[in-house]
Amino acid sequence: MELKSLKVDIKDHIAHVILNRPEALNSMNIDFWREFHGVIEEIDAQADARVIVLSSTGKHFCAGMDLAVFSNPKALPNKGDPARMAENLRRLVLDLQEVFNVLERARMPVLSAIHGGCIGGAVDMICATDSRYCTEDAFFTIKETQLGMTADLGTLQRFPKLVPEGIARELAYTGRKFSAQEAKEMGFVNRVFENQEAMLEGVMEIAQQIAEQSPMAVAGCKEMINFSRDHSVEDSLKYMATWQSGMFRPNDMMKSFAASAQKTTADFDPILPKKPLFSDL
């Protein structure tokens, strides 16, 4: 697949997905919406990578939605029966949400590395990643409010689970910018780096540490943390017990013990690739 908005590099079990429209501040144009979902799904399906790092090029991480997307009458018809136009818009929003939902569904963790501006739809995107890191010059804004609309691709659902709710409400209601330091203080980002080079080096080190662990164990951690976020403690503990009864096997544990004793890195089997239904029949 020839990519117009992204670059992808997979090495040492780390998939590096790079937003690559620096001349347009990496705004999310039609090419992005067509490509991003498929790229993440393909990485997940192939299962060669054990962690995904999401970064970008140019001055800013991402300026959010390219408004030209909504000026296309094929994407958003503005004539005809109101009920049918409304139903069409609902499906469009659900389809756009799905582009970022895939980050949560991927079996491997996704780490986002943010520099410069992270605006509007870009905040929706990084809220769906497992961990966020940024440079000192990074800033964030839930810009949709200042554009006269409500953020609709995940920020309002995920952001209040990542930071105190009162802060999430303030930032959503006002649409004001908040800095890297403020993002760190509220717990939205894990770490702030001096510059982009230092950030990518640091995030890749974290990615490598993840990639060295049992991919089954890491996938289980992600599954449980996501489930627990949206369910009660009791339900989550029951799901954990069910998961262990089906997924836990001693092979990876024995490899971990042996590697620790020998002071080496364990060589774990990959999780199995995903295949289309009945593809082998």
From TrEMBL:
List the protein's name.
Enoyl-CoA hydratase
**Biological classification of the source:** Bacteria, Pseudomonadati, Pseudomonadota, Gammaproteobacteria, Oceanospirillales
Q: In which pathway does it act?
A: Lipid metabolism; fatty acid beta-oxidation
The molecular function terms of the Gene Ontology recorded here are: isomerase activity
Q: InterPro entries, per this entry?
A: ClpP/crotonase-like_dom_sf (IPR029045), Ech1-like (IPR045002), Enoyl-CoA_hydra/iso (IPR001753), Enoyl-CoA_hydra_C (IPR014748)
UniProt keywords (A-Z) are: Acetylation, Fatty acid metabolism, Isomerase, Lipid metabolism, Peroxisome
Q: Where in the cell is it found?
A: Peroxisome
Per the similarity annotation, which family is this?
Answer: Belongs to the enoyl-CoA hydratase/isomerase family.
Q: Which GO terms describe its biological process?
A: fatty acid metabolic process
Cite the Gene3D superfamilies for this sequence: 2-enoyl-CoA Hydratase, Chain A, domain 1, Lyase 2-enoyl-coa Hydratase, Chain A, domain 2
Protein source organism: Litoribrevibacter albus
Q: What is its main location?
A: other
Q: One GO cellular component from the entry?
A: cytoplasm
| A Pfam family the protein falls into | ECH_1
The family database entries (NCBIfam families) matched by this protein are listed as: PRK06142.1
